[in-house]
Design a protein that fits this description.
6 helices; 2 domains; Diphtheria Toxin Repressor, domain 2; mainly alpha; 71% helix; Arc Repressor Mutant, subunit A; 2 strands
């Protein structure tokens, strides 16, 4: 069973691929995440069980409304933290790594307060 961070990462990748390609396939997710196709298959079963994705007959993958909402929220958090960290002088590579950690680790209350403080709400 996938944990919250992995779920959010899969949904974020599916959203990014969906916006880029329209049709998302498991092999693209595997490539993007650097995992095996078998690992993605197991994860997709969990995501479908949670109601975050729909698997199409032609092997395409679509986010449900709930899955899209989660993916958009996580993506927004990632972009905020990455930009904020770069603004204060953190190298792009480190900013991206730390943004990935922060997007999952902070409460919504703290995230909202930071956005308000930095004037990006």
């Amino acid at each position: 069973m996938l944990g919250r961070e992995k779920i959010e990462n899969y949904l974020k990748v599916i959203l990014r691929l969906q916006e880029r390609n329209r049709m998302v396939r498991a092999v693209e997710i595997a490539s993007e995440l650097g995992v095996s196709r078998a690992t993605v298959s197991v994860a997709l079963k969990d995501l479908r069980q949670f109601g975050y994705i729909t698997l199409l007959d032609d092997r395409g993958i679509l986010l449900t409304e709930e899955g899209r909402t989660i993916a958009q929220t996580v993506t927004e958090r990632y972009r905020f933290f990455s930009e904020m960290l770069r603004t204060i002088g953190i190298s792009p590579k480190t900013a991206d790594q730390d943004a990935c950690y922060l997007e999952h680790g902070l409460s919504q209350e703290t995230f909202d307060a930071l956005r308000e403080y930095f004037g990006t709400k």
